[in-house]
UniProtKB/TrEMBL annotation:
UniProt-recorded name of the protein: Transcriptional regulator, BadM/Rrf2 family
NCBIfam families with a match to the protein in the record: rrf2_super (TIGR00738)
GO molecular function: DNA-binding transcription factor activity
InterPro entries: TR_Rrf2-type_CS (IPR030489), Tscrpt_reg_Rrf2 (IPR000944), WH-like_DNA-bd_sf (IPR036388), WH_DNA-bd_sf (IPR036390)
Superkingdom of this protein's organism: Bacteria
């Protein structure tokens, strides 16, 4: 459903949010280990998220990645749009360019419902909402 890049971005943002709530900044090595991702790949993703303003970073001995108050309240939809664009919210389920209400693809109306539910879930899911489940060990970011 999401690209691998987007999956890693979402996992990293949640991991960083957890560390931020613990008043900690976190480095690339710890993030990669914490979400089970390749270090070089996650570094590129985090650089892009920082450039787009979804994530903050600080250099130096006490540096690392963190989320400010605004970033903590971002939705998962914000992350998905920043990484994968908004095609998942508006695109055709079969990838057709001309799919519409007037000229629907075979799955248009069923997929429209799924797409709307997914959009609602991602819009309402805030980054900071997932940290408690991680702290309570009722949810996990690693396999």
């Amino acid at each position: 459903m999401f690209s691998k890049t987007c999956e890693y971005a979402i996992r990293a943002m949640i991991f960083i949010a957890q560390k931020t709530k613990q008043d900690s900044r976190v480095g690339i090595k710890d993030i990669a280990k914490g979400i089970n991702s390749p270090e070089h790949f996650i570094a590129k993703i985090l650089q892009d998220l920082t450039r787009k303003g979804l994530l903050q970073s600080a250099k130096g001995p006490s540096g690392g990645f963190y989320l400010d108050k605004t970033s903590m309240k971002q939705s998962l939809a914000d992350v998905v749009k920043a990484v994968d664009g908004d095609k998942i919210f508006y695109g055709c389920g079969l990838g057709l360019k001309q799919c519409s209400e007037i000229k629907p693809c075979p799955i248009h109306f069923q997929f429209k419902k799924v797409r709307q539910e997914l959009s609602n879930m991602l819009q309402n899911a805030r980054i900071d909402a997932f940290t408690e489940a991680l702290e309570n060990n009722t949810a996990f970011l690693r396999r």
